[in-house]
Design brief:
Blueprint (H helix, E strand, L loop, with lengths): L1 E4 L2 E4 L4 E3 L8 E3 L2 H8 L17 H17 L10 H44 L1 H9 L4 H43 L9 H27 L3 H6 L2
Antiparallel strand pairs: 1-2, 3-4
Length: 231
């Protein structure tokens, strides 16, 4: 890699590329001997990175504590000894806060949507008054009327769920790319879980049923006399 140092052009050999959470950009590593000569830090170091065989948080914390005691016992002035996952967890806190905020917004949106569905179902019941009267006349009981209205509300909820799935892919990838660059300085892999879809499907169905109960009860209370008098 060509570099200009103190007005002098030099060719540096890159022996490694590294990127870590909490550090801006990508780090390039050059041969130790040359770096020590240029910086006048022969046989000296300011930072050590150690890769462990076990990568879980508990093992990394234990190794960090062991190395901290070892270097201090040898007379080194240790500023900090920290596990790699600890740095990742610190950077992830801001991401967790954003995810929580988005989840709250999604729940509020779903609640407002259920209120809109309740209004829509109320209008449907009003427009289908004569149809409900015909069902009454041929023997439909209250439970059948309510089941019909609630089933219609659930179908509308399922349609909205299907459209949401289609739109979730591009929006999720875009949001993940923007947030990962802001927090981690690098794109992260986006994973869609089947469990998440099941949870939201259950939530949509519950909200659809709840939103349809009041219009369904209104439809069930209609009598044949009221229907015949309706214009």
């Amino acid at each position: 890699m060509p570099l200009k140092i103190n007005g002098r052009k030099e060719q540096w050999q890159v022996v490694g590329i590294f990127q870590f959470v909490g550090q801006e950009g990508i780090l390039a590593y050059a041969p130790l001997e040359y770096i020590s000569q240029v910086n006048d830090l022969a046989n000296q170091a300011v930072l050590f990175r150690i890769e462990t065989t076990q990568h879980d948080r508990a093992s990394q914390d234990k190794m960090a504590e062991t190395l901290d005691h070892y270097f201090r016992a040898k007379g080194f002035d240790v500023l900090q000894s920290q596990a790699g996952l600890a740095s990742l967890d610190t950077a992830s806190q801001s991401l967790d806060t954003l995810v929580t905020f988005l989840l709250i917004m999604a729940l509020l949106t779903a609640t407002v949507g259920s209120m809109g569905l309740a209004g829509t179902m109320g209008m449907n019941v009003l427009e289908r008054t004569r149809e409900i009267g015909i069902m009454r006349a041929i023997g439909a009981v209250d439970s059948i009327i309510m089941q019909t209205v609630i089933a219609e509300g659930m179908v509308i909820g399922l349609i909205s769920f299907g459209l949401a799935i289609i739109l979730s892919f591009p929006f999720t990838y875009l949001l993940s790319y923007i947030v990962s660059l802001a927090v981690f300085q690098t794109p992260i892999q986006t994973v869609f879980t089947f469990t998440g879809y099941l949870i939201w499907l259950a939530l949509i169905l519950v909200l659809s049923v709840v939103a349809s109960i009041l219009p369904a009860r209104s439809a069930a209370r209609l009598t044949i006399r009221e229907v015949l008098a309706y214009e």
